[in-house]
Amino acid sequence: MSGRPQVIVMGGGLAGIAACERLSRTPSRSFDILLLEGRPHLGGRVGSYYDPDIGREIDTGQHLFLSCYTGTLTLLEALGTRSGLVFYDRLYLPLWDRERGLHPLDIPGSDNPVALAGGLLQYEGLPFLSRLAFLALSRAVPKNDNDVDHLSAYEFLLRAGQREEVIERFWELVILSATNLPSRRVSAAILVRILKESLLRGGRHSRPGYNAVPLSELFALPAMSLFKKRGVTVRTKTRIVGFSESQGRVTGVTTAQEALPLGRSDHLLSALPPWAFEKIVPLSLHQTPLVDQMSRLSYASPILSVNLLFSEPVRLPLITGFHQSAVHWIFNREAMDQRLTPEIRPWFDWSVQVEDDFYPTRVASATVSGADDLLALPDSELGALCLAHIKKIDPTTPASVKSVRAVRDRFATPVLGPGQSTLRPEARTSLPNLWIAGDTTDTGLPATMEGAIRSGYRAAELILKALGER
Prior knowledge:
Blueprint: E1 6-10, H1 14-23, E2 32-36, E3 48-51, E4 56-59, E5 65-66, H2 70-79, E6 85-87, E7 91-97, E8 101-107, H3 113-122, H4 128-131, H5 137-140, H6 153-159, H7 164-179, H8 188-197, E9 208-211, H9 215-230, E10 233-235, E11 240-246, E12 249-255, E13 259-261, E14 267-270, H10 274-280, H11 289-296, E15 300-316, E16 319-322, E17 329-332, H12 333-337, E18 359-369, H13 379-393, E19 401-414, E20 434-436, H14 449-466
Parallel strand pairs: 1-2, 1-14, 2-10, 7-16, 14-20
Antiparallel strand pairs: 3-4, 5-9, 6-9, 7-8, 11-12, 12-13, 15-18, 15-19, 16-17, 17-18
């Protein structure tokens, strides 16, 4: 490092990548940037690797993107990989229900409220009288998200006129997928923010998408290339041991290799998850509100991803959701490789019968959110469980599971239950040169890629202001 001010970023996940992208955007900046990451690569919990048994690059977790992910799209534009995402022209998701089988949720890509109401009423996965409950939801959404933070999402939905049947057979899958928690364990404020940014804003903001390239090619590898061009120093395989504080300022960072002093003009940004941050905090800060908040957010909810290779092709939609099932989503990987999207079809016309989009594939990925009960199962049993779900969609298939690879992320997301708004820290801390980013911070969003990226951008903007940069 030179004698110029420096910003040290701890953690090379999406929050750290987003922060460094924003900090390094101006070529004439007057400070240096150092990014420290303990793993051999950037990306944190988002990545991919080649699996010889599956015979392809597999992601550490299959993700469903939404067109309202403004932070993610901004980052991918900067990385030059925006084309790696494929978005539908509308909200179209085939959903399986144990009582009524497979029916698509099909909402036009229009911001007209009538289109939203019509699409929800057209969803045949619920009896028509139960669908009428959807019409009451928007009236119950408060202007201030935190007005319902004391409630669970389940309690809020009941108060919003959603029948128990509608919650269990529709909203539960939505909440699990968005928050990695069941409706009874997650804050209603997070559900309200999700609804405001996506479904209730209109169809243009609710379009689902998927990555047509491996996640490492979408985020980690282009980030390394971009940072090299912009003069950001990146040190991987650098385990952070701790940081020091004196007289109300951070004075240094210690890694397994060396001690890095921080001067009066230097800044430290932690983009670590709470369970990692609390391990490196100096004793002098242990009684502070920040550390108390981080400690109380250190409970994690796991995600299970199962990658499957079949003996012969099975026929599946691009993305299929399963209500009240052990497996929540199954993705048709070969259809995604072809960058396919659902066909345009007549909408709100029950006289026209159109078969759902099915495509043959020998490779599929399944995800289970809040997967505490399944983590201990061996890969073979998980493969059999996923195949049983696939046969609900393609019951005549003779295919068997040829190879299976499960990725168990035990520390996928923090638990953000009722009352979480008082726990999630702001980017700015009581120490003028210590900043916090990550999906735990107070973005209002669940612990998702989008929340992490927005937090990184937010922290970077504040650091730039503190440095007198634009």
